[in-house]
Amino acid sequence: MSTGTGGTYWQGKALPSVFKHDLLRRYIPPFGGMTGTQAQDRRVVYLDGYAGEGRYENGEPGSAEIALQVASYYRSRGLNLSCFFVEQQARSFVRLQQVLRGYQARGVDARAHHGEVNDVLDDVVQRAMGVPLFLFLDPCGLCLPMDRLVDVLAQRRPQRRPATELLMNFSMMAVRRLGGHVRSPKGNEKSLERFDAVCGGRWWREYFTGGSAEEDAAEAVAAEYARRLKQRTGMFVHFVPVAKHPTWKPVYYLVFATRSPYGLWVFGDAVARARSEWWKTLELQEEQEEPDALFSTTSILRPDPSVVEKEAVPIIAANLERLLQSGRAVKLVDHTLELFGQYYGQVTEPAARKAVKYLHSEGKTPSTGIGGDKTRELIVQPPTA
Ligand SMILES: C[S@@+](CC[C@H](N)C(=O)[O-])C[C@H]1O[C@@H](n2cnc3c(N)ncnc32)[C@H](O)[C@@H]1O
User: Are residue 193 and residue 339 in the same domain, yes or no?
Assistant: First the structure.
């Protein structure tokens, strides 16, 4: 199983990375902002465990430089995003170090380790004692064994505060490939065993021994992986599909895990915005590749965000109405997943406020949804009898 980035990977950003990086760029700052007060010295530890080169050859920032930019921004505001980067490939590590030097010279608290993330993880967790910790794990192939993740997330950092969050690449290409090994009499047992460890057992093999189509089996494995991670860590776990093309299957899922209702809320908003960036970049790429085309895939397939929001508002309002049936006031951020339902990660935060206004206009809540706090802080009252 390949673990490196060969060929053209670092020449320029592929579409899945556009989404991944936009999401990181949008989510790391509020994570720092929301959790920075949980440590006395306003320190937040950030680990990019599969950091790569840090910057593309065309100058665009990779995941490491995105974190360094956030750290640099925060430094001037009194928050210390203490960054740890790990990279296994010697050539990539050298380039990563070059990127780091520029930021270290400006006082950013960052260091890089040449080697395996597994060997560094315990040290980083130790250094994050008493402060919030964000783990970004983005391998090209298989991610860390589930027991290892559970050890960090549930055994060593089981508390809500200081916060612990995870964003991890779960490769569907790897799952499909390994499914092929299960089905083939010549399947490589060593690779299968590695994935057993990733999944925390051999359970996933059964999905490929039944009669289901390969893609259905792979999707079922991803869903079951999410369920198990949620069960074993007690965290909210959300899977975000990332694809190369609107009609293709995801190349990977980004697995997000948090214990914070605020994290969940802000992440959903960031996903919807990053999705928009993905479409914009696809459109741009299409224009460059086929400038004379009459119609682009994007113009045909892209869901109009305002139409999606229009559809979403009454559904979110109905979800809210259901929550209010308890007879108690509902603080929006405490019910993110029930509130947004199928539109979580599809629409941005303002859709929730519009839903409150919609419900009010229907006479189903005395709360107007006007003014006041941030949308997520809105407290919506049940209807008066
Ligand atoms: C998908 S790339 C990372 C891309 C980067 N996170 C970004 O978004 O800009 C994965 C990187 O992980 C490195 N790698 C693979 N296995 C590793 C391991 N066990 N520990 C640390 N790095 C590893 C590879 O050499 C490769 O550079």
Answer: no
What backbone phi and psi angles, to 5 degrees, belong to 3?
-120, -5
Can you give the residue range of the structural domain that contains 359? 302-380
Closest CA to 146 of 267, 257, 282, 35: 257
Is the pTM above the cut of 0.85? yes
pLDDT, tens digit (0-9, with 9 covering 90-100), for 154-189? 999 999 999 999 999 999 999 999 999 999 999 899
Ligand 1 lined by 62 (C-beta under 6 Å): yes
Spatial CB neighbours of 148, under 8 Å, sequence gap ≥ 6: 118, 121
State how many domains the chain has: 2
Ligand 1: residue of 1, 2, 3 to mutate (most ligand atoms within 8 A of CB) is 3
In degrees rounded to 5, what are phi and psi of residue 175? -60, -45
- Tens of pLDDT, residues 203-228: 999 999 988 899 999 999 999 999 99
Kindly state whether residues 205 and 351 are assigned to the same domain.
Answer: no
| Cα gap 228→247, rounded to integer Å | 28
